[in-house]
Design brief:
Number of strands: 8
Strand order of the largest sheet: 1-2-3-4-5-6-7-8
Order of helices and strands: HHHHEEHEHEHEHEHEHEHH
Strand content: 5-15%
Distance between the termini: 54 Å
Length: 302
């Protein structure tokens, strides 16, 4: 199989170990040391316990010697957040007037399918696991990064090939959401992280109406400006399996809209607090036959 075909396969199926084996053999034939890295890491994954330390040592030495050269394939302004076999899979770029150009270059990486657009140092420090539990807080006391320059430039992005897109802590508001909805994309994005982005009902409706996000399965909307009207707009995300709506004042009407959403029976994870939906909303969720049993049981316990 030619390199380009293997690379396309691995972009679409990054866990396909047989294709990684074939790609590693091809790289070794081409003199690319990452072929040897793939070989060693695959050996380590299946080695006897007695052999693992030596294989790990060889892998670490290879990475230490060559990783800087491998990362030079990306713009220097891009930060690699996730790698596999020496290749960048997910990158982060700080938003600025020149960010669309930098992002376009970063996404030319062979296997880059994840992008996080940051809002400076504050956002980078705040970036944490999607599902970390967080203490209660007063949103008005939170530091708020300034709005990005020329937020409409989000419409200039080419998001084709991405399966994961994050803008957490980048306060784009409804205009930014509307611009993002107009960006070029092939609609493969499955994870969309919009925590603390200042998005309201209109912005969420624009995203839901965009073909860019028709395949989203994991949607993170923690601490925006969403009401029950915004929850009704979620009906456009028909393939949702994980949804974070914490710290949005959706009330009992929002809980009812969620129960009526076409994806509700497929939800595997729903993050909400009683304060978000009110006592009446919590009762609706606790007795909604549309909800999966595990989620319904959770709401009966809160």
């Amino acid at each position: 199989m030619e390199a380009t075909a293997l690379e396309q396969t691995l972009r679409e199926r990054p866990d396909d170990e047989a294709s990684w084996d074939a790609y590693g053999r091809l790289l070794r034939e081409q003199g690319d040391i990452r072929g040897e890295l793939i070989h060693l890491e695959r050996l380590h994954a299946h080695a006897r316990p007695a052999d693992r330390d030596e294989l790990k040592r060889r892998v670490d030495l290879l990475v230490e010697e060559h990783q800087q050269t491998w990362d030079a394939e990306l713009p220097p302004e891009a930060t690699v957040r996730l790698r596999r076999h020496g290749f960048a899979l997910k990158v982060a770029v700080e938003w600025s007037e020149g960010a669309p150009t930098l992002i376009g270059k970063a996404l030319q990486g062979r296997f880059v399918t994840g992008l996080h657009i940051m809002s400076g140092e504050e956002a980078e420090e705040a970036d944490e696991d999607y599902y970390d539990d967080e203490p209660d807080f007063d949103e008005d006391d939170m530091p708020r990064p300034p709005p990005p320059h020329e937020v409409g430039a989000l419409a200039d992005l080419d998001l084709g090939g991405l399966t994961e897109l994050g803008l957490a802590y980048l306060r784009i508001g409804d205009p930014g959401a509307e611009a993002l909805a107009a960006a070029a994309s092939d609609g493969r994005i499955e994870t969309l992280d919009l925590r603390y982005c200042g998005i309201g009902d209109a912005g969420l409706a624009a995203l839901g109406a965009s073909p860019n996000f028709r395949n989203v399965r994991r949607l993170h909307l923690q601490c925006n400006r969403l009401t029950a009207q915004g929850v009704r707009a979620l009906a456009a995300f028909e393939r949702l399996e994980e949804l974070d709506l914490r710290y949005n004042p959706i009330g009992a009407d929002g809980a009812q809209a969620l129960i009526e959403a076409p994806f509700v029976g497929s939800l595997k994870r729903l993050l909400l607090y009683r304060e978000d939906v009110s006592d009446a909303g919590a009762q609706k969720l606790a007795h909604a036959p549309q909800l999966p049993t595990a989620l319904r049981s959770f709401w009966r316990s809160v």
